[in-house]
Design brief:
Layout: H1 10-20, H2 28-77, H3 84-138
Helix pairs in contact: 2-3
């Protein structure tokens, strides 16, 4: 058996396989185009996920910088309490503001994650629908016809 070049692409390997298999009416180009569109959809989905992750990390950094700035400002503006009650009130107020900010930030980040995931899944869902239609068309017994009604 002849040695094949290691530089052959996967597409070339599938083309060669399709040409050598004794399967009648095998449209290798159509199969390869189908899988190429699948890979493109996966790439778009991954890009949407990466973009969402990058945006979320940027926002987390902004939140952290804001939190550090606020903590520094609060520390500079603090004065020694004159009584234990005043100290307790000051600490409770600081804890309340910190907690409220943390909850707001977590909600915002959760929303960003949800949007990113939804965008990525929508890309894949759309490709799956198209792939199912392509497969259905590929099983139509009449050459050149579609088993589905034409869509306008």
């Amino acid at each position: 058996m002849a040695q094949q070049s290691n530089s052959d692409s996967i597409i070339d390997l599938f083309k060669r396989l399709g040409q050598t298999l004794p399967i009648p009416n095998l449209d290798v180009e159509r199969i390869i185009a189908h899988h190429r569109r699948n890979l493109e959809a996966l790439e778009q989905s991954a890009r949407a996920t990466a973009d969402g992750t990058s945006a979320m990390m940027t926002r987390q950094r902004e939140m952290l910088e804001s939190m550090i700035s606020q903590a520094t400002e609060t520390a500079r503006g603090m004065k020694l309490p004159s009584s234990p009650q005043e100290m307790m009130t000051s600490q409770v107020d600081l804890a309340r503001r910190t907690f409220e900010t943390a909850v707001e930030n977590a909600g915002e980040l959760g929303t960003m994650m949800q949007r990113s995931g939804t965008a990525s899944i929508d890309i894949l869902r759309d490709r799956i629908k198209l792939a199912m239609n392509e497969l259905q068309d590929g099983f139509d017994p009449r050459p050149g016809s579609s088993s589905r009604p034409e869509q306008s």
